[in-house]
Amino acid sequence: MAISGEQLKGMFRGLFPGDSALTDKLAVERVVEYVALPYNSNTANTVIGLQTLPYSVLVTEVKLQPGSANIAANNTNYAVLRVDYDDAAGGSVTSVASSNTTSVAGQIGALTVNRDATLLATTTAPVAVAAGNQLRINITQISSGVTITNPTVKIKYRITGV
CA-to-CA distance for 35 and 100, rounded, in angstroms? Predict the structure, then answer.
């Protein structure tokens, strides 16, 4: 299959100063990394706003890693991690990645420093998020919870519209 000149031009759009990837009709995939999130482990429920999207996206993968301490899996004291989005206007909250826990029986289990734990796998159907919505991570502590030190969240998404 041959690639037209316009398609070839579109593949490189956004790579050079003054050129906008948002004007391209081809999908643009990005990985956004939020390092050392402002997280207080002493709070029963913490919601961290990550990004208000200026364009519509399909979220294809979400990963989390602790920054400076391993977390052992525990069935009594653990954290429930959920990535969701909010319309940023007090509307409803919709889950992007279903709840994942650091309990022994949980989907994540133990967390290891500098190793990604998958909250939304690439094998899961992508989640559409409209422009203007805010991506968030919601951390709920169960019992006395766990401390996730300097967490990093990586969100991979494909831009679908402006």
Answer: 20
Q: Shortest CA distance to 104 belongs to which of 81, 72, 133?
A: 72
Instruction: Please provide the DSSP assignment of 23-87 as one string.
Output: G-SS-EEEEEEE-S----TTSSEEEEEEEE-SSEEEEEEEEEE-SS--B---SSSEEEEEEEEE-
The C-alpha atoms of residue 34 and residue 49 are separated, in whole angstroms, by 10
What digits encode the pLDDT tens for the residues 72-131? 888 888 888 888 888 767 777 888 876 777 887 777 888 888 888 888 776 678 888 999
Nearest to 55 by CA among 155, 159, 136, 134: 159
DSSP letter (8 states) at residue 110: S
User: Helix, strand or coil for residue 93?
Assistant: strand
Q: Which domains can be identified in the chain, with CATH numbers?
A: 27-161 (2.60.120)
And the tokens for 153? 């969240």
Nearest Cα residue to 86 out of 114, 122, 50? 50
- Identify which of 81, 80, 88 has the alpha carbon closest to the alpha carbon of residue 129: 88
- The rounded distance, in Å, linking the Cα atoms of 90 and 92 is 7
